[in-house]
Amino acid sequence: MTAVHPLATGTRQAQPLVQPSRADDGLLRFPTDFLWGAATAAYQIEGAAAEDGRTPSIWDTYSHTPGRVRNGDTGDIAADHYHRYRDDVALMAGLGLKAYRFSVSWSRVQPTGRGPAVERGLDFYRRLTDELLAAGITPVATLYHWDLPQELEDAGGWPARDTAERFGEYAALIGEALGDRVRYWTTLNEPWCSAYLGYGSGVHAPGRTDPGHALQAAHHLNLGHGRAVAALRSVLPASAEPQLSITLNLHHVRALSDSAADLDAARQIDALGNRVFLGPILDREYPADLREDTAHLVDWDELVHPGDLAAISAPIDLLGVNYYAPNLVSAGTGVPSADNARSDAHGVSDYSPWPGAESVVFHQPPGERTAMNWSIDPSGLHDLLTRIGAEHPELPLMITENGAAFDDYVNPEGEVRDPERIAYVRSHLAAVHDAIAEGVDVRGYFLWSLMDNFEWAYGYGKRFGAVYVDYASQRRIPKSSAHWYADTIRRNAVSRSEP
Q1: What is the average pLDDT value for the chain, to the nearest integer?
Q2: Organism's domain of life (predicted)?
């Protein structure tokens, strides 16, 4: 068993947090041990796409395919974080971040998805975590944020069962390399996107459009998560008290009306968006209604092998929750607006990302929207957290992504003012505070994103960052929201509304 890295001593203990409070000054104060952070993903920021042994992932292939990404953008350079990580960590420290959630590029450390790791690739993540720890920032590692090695996709990708087995082996390699430095681990980021956008609607890599394959991918992603949990438990130092999790982009689904048809549409989307993951991971079963709805697309008895559900339901310590906007659905009435579904907001496709529920219609609710055309509704986050808290009160939660894209620009004074983002984050933090006050065990909040980056099918046309990136010069400019967030972290509190 590896000794704990000396810089990793004194890490936070996972324990129930004290309740938040609302002080006389009107501030909503968070628990004293609340973990404030920001998040990124490897392909979106690292660049260095062909350096130090890295081979193409499915996103390299996808982005280099004409017509897949707006303006023909790729992640070849992105925010050049691979070369600028020390400056970026210094920037994080200047903002007072307590934690940083990053992902590991699978093809950077295991180019074929099989066999031994490439030490040059592992060394980058060793250097990054050491830099974070030296700056007093807790590293939070995500093993997979959508960048499957292309060689594994050529062998069948996530619809193939073997990919789950390869993922478990990869998890062990990363755990052995970073286990003395990293305490917080996430197996998969948003497997819904990997399965349904990658293999259903095709608006994400690898761009396949087969609803049956999308469901097979969902199961094998679940299985890969279980294999990774087992692998990490076997190699991580017990003295580090590792905290293992998966991050889900859970959908808060609302029916357009109280009609039986609309309520059933919401049930279908809830099954495909939420319970397809929560069921096997937390309750050791796939929901019966999901299996019935999709029986014409996949043979569940053949897909789910004996022992799969036991593996998938290996205990986790935390559940990561990503939230941006709720979904409003009906049973095929009214004027649809697919852009309200986060799936379709990532690209345009004639194929549905909802296998077996193609007749369900998504609607745009009234109110403000972000530059992604996603509705701004913090009540959806509150309702989602209270639902999970009620269904699984024993499981601590972490907001692992929340944020918004707006049309940011550098003004003549060299500043980037983004009051809309401040208002968005403030209102969602207030919703998190309310959920905690009602007894939901939420341990932290990670802003998406630390910096502007490659926004998948939108290329560089959408900016989510608290830090502005001038891609031509790679200059970083903290936006007004970054300064506001730093003050929020310092106070460990937020005002419910703008003073």
Answers
A1: 93
A2: Bacteria
Lowest mean pLDDT among 60-74, 257-271, 329-343: 329-343
- Bridge-based pairing state of the strands 253-255 and 361-363: unpaired
Judge whether 461 and 499 are in contact, CB under 8 Å: no
Is 1 inside a domain boundary?
no
Residue 66's CB is within 10 A of a number of other CB atoms, namely: 6
Q: Which residue among 401, 413, 438, 455 is the active-site one? A: 401
Q: What angle do CA 98, 102, 107 make, to 5 degrees?
A: 160
Q: How many domains does the chain divide into?
A: 1
Has residue 375 been placed in a domain?
A: yes
Report the predicted TM-score, pTM, of the whole model to 2 decimal places.
0.94
Catalytic residue among 190, 292, 413, 498: 190
In this predicted structure, the answer to whether residue 205 has a pLDDT above a threshold of 80 is yes
Q: Which domain holds residue 69?
A: 6-494
| Burial profile 290-313: b = 16 or more Cβ within 10 angstroms, e = fewer | bbebbeebbebeebbeeebbebbb
**Residue that the structure tokens 């077996």 belong to:** 356
% of residues, the chain, pLDDT over 90: 90
